[in-house]
């Protein structure tokens, strides 16, 4: 069961079949997927199978406007070890630079700490992904590591930055 999380402007809810078509254009876009661990999706079927996979080991939310409408972001959380969650997120390009990432990622992290009792939340980003790195820094995450040539992706071997925040540090 994916818990609903409310923010002032959005509801974070579990992903549904009807979300596939709204999210697909972003996940097909090579610019949007540049810093992901995989390349763009080539077909709707491939994307739907990936997005709706309930067995992947984590949980998926979509952010939808409280006033109604299509998803504006996808967020995930997975437990890496007891008390430690990794998060990921993608705000659809048409909705970028509107504070959606900060509002929704902040709400997810608050939920993980306060409602679920995690003690640590972390994220793994490509150092070249400036918007994502700025978001984590604004939210109060600390850049804890720079791993060189740590992950082979569709764009080659990439460095990664690890960002973390502890429950007692969380400012929100």
From TrEMBL:
Source taxon at top rank: Bacteria
Query: Cross-referenced InterPro entries, in alphabetical order?
Result: Acyl_CoA_acyltransferase (IPR016181), GNAT_dom (IPR000182), Ribosomal_N-acetyltransferase (IPR051908)
Q: Which residues form the N-acetyltransferase domain?
A: 10-168
Q: Where is the signal peptide?
A: none
One of its Pfam families is Acetyltransf_3
What name appears for this protein in its UniProt entry?
GNAT family protein
Its ancestry begins with: Bacteria, Pseudomonadati, Pseudomonadota, Alphaproteobacteria, Sphingomonadales
């Amino acid at each position: 069961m994916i818990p609903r999380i409310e923010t002032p402007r959005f509801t974070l809810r579990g992903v549904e079949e009807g979300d596939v078509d709204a999210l697909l254009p972003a996940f097909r876009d090579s610019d949007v997927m540049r810093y992901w661990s995989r390349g763009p999706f080539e077909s709707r079927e491939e994307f739907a199978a990936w997005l709706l996979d309930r067995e992947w080991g984590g949980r998926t939310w979509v952010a939808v406007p409280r006033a109604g409408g299509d998803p504006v972001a996808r967020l995930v959380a997975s437990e890496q070890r007891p008390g430690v969650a990794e998060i990921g997120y993608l705000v659809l390009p048409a909705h970028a630079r509107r504070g959606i990432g900060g509002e929704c990622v902040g709400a997810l992290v608050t939920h993980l700490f306060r409602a679920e009792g995690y003690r640590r939340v972390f994220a793994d980003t490509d150092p070249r992904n400036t918007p994502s790195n700025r978001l984590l820094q604004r939210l109060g995450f600390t850049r804890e590591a720079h791993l060189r040539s740590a992950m082979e992706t569709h764009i080659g071997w990439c460095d990664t930055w690890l960002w973390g925040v502890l429950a007692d540090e969380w400012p929100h």
